[in-house]
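step: validate -> pass
step: tokenize input -> pass
step: predict -> running
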Amino acid sequence: MTSAHGAIDSSLTVGEVDARLYGTLVEHLGRCVYTGIHEPAHPESDERGFRLDVLELARELGVTIVRYPGGNFVSGYRWEDGVGPVDERPVRLDLAWRSVEHNRVGTDEFVDWVRLVGAEPMLAVNLGTRGTEAALDLLEYCNVPGGTALSARRAANGHPEPHAVSVWCLGNEVDGPWQIGQKTAEDYSKLARETAKAMKILDPSVELVACGSSSRAMPTFGEWEATVLEQCYPYVDFISAHAYYEPEDDDLDSFLASACDMDAYIDGLVATCDHVAAKLRSPRRIDVSFDEWNVWYQSRLDATVMGSWQEHPRLIEDTHSLADAVVVGTLLITLLRHADRVRVACLAQLVNTIAPIMTQPGGPAWRQTTFFPFALAARHARSGVVLRLHADGPRIETQRFGSVPALEATAVWREAEGELVILCANRDRRTPLELDLALHGFDALGVVEHVTLTGDNPYAQNTCAQPNTVRPQQLTSASVNGGRLTAPLPPLSWNLIRLCSLGARRGQHSTAAKTFAGGRPA
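step: predict -> pass
step: emit ->
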């Protein structure tokens, strides 16, 4: 066993955790909506057609905000198609995913569903094929209490109270050649500026997200953000970031270090925001909405399915492995380590399409491997202050990123609860790692639990037939002695370690074994 030695000091803070870091995306893509969250004929659906098994899993996942209706889908979407009597809604061809959209679920149904989850809606407006007027109409429909044509229409559709949507995305990935309504940075920035300005006049309380680059690999990355922000800076609150990761050439070690790319992405994006602020002499600060991120095997995308013009086809239904779950866990750690500037993040997506929750039409729902690090972090690290955690230890050589640390870690101090939560991963696939941390500035702490996600097979998966192959396990050898935490981290593992002030330990207990007791909602 090798060791990583470091320290955590309660006074060395990064920033407050924004609960909206634990967001997801629900897009009209594949089976995310239909036979995902909505399936009227399912035996466990309610009177509105929402699958109750999926609803319970979404609650268990700990989702706090959900972006809708896309994603690429939004760039050709007419929001009016999805409101009003369901049997009168038009059937359309969705050009983004080459599917048939019958519009049985729209804005009202989505907001009803997301409120049942206990989360906040985050809506995107179409700045691909539409523009300012359609965005204002949707904002009026959703947020104006009454006394206007569109608020009256919402009331007539069964929602007399406003939806009160706070966060709005000004389009989606409009720099991408795959996008319906692709634009140059100059053209998009002018449209986004005028749309944002008008939306803020209509509802000054809204928070607006301008489109950043579709990925860090885009040739215009950095230049795009600078152009957009120089035009939109007074009117927007966030710039978006999107990133997906998969192994290249079976290079598992580089894949396990994917968080290095996300870390550099965020640093570059923040630097660009602050450069524009300095150039404009603006006292405002633009933060990051990392509103699409996940493991996605894009090399497996079946173009024949995309071209078949089906209703809710089985599209992008990746089955995630233990290694994928460890990567997702390290990406979560990276987002938390940037909590001072990343205030919204959305795992894309929620159900069936590269998702932590999977379903069978008419059948069961189950948790993918990636469900667990997200759910554990959302439960135990959704509030508090992120602390700086540095530890020196062994390194791993990778083809893509060079030498990287075997340990990826962060800590969240929840002072009101007297609880210190450490999230950490051992990227080394062969060698266990002992975590050894000095704890400074805390009352005497004791270990409440150490939960790990690990296994002998990095490619182990959870399936409908075998939904419990990969599950969190309780370890019992973590301890605090003389103000130092020591905890063994298994090879290829993601871990959550909870410590609590000894005076507050009454009532603290282990949760993972009970929460994830089986393949169906606990």
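step: describe -> Residues 518-522 have pLDDT under 50 and may be disordered.
step: cleanup -> pass
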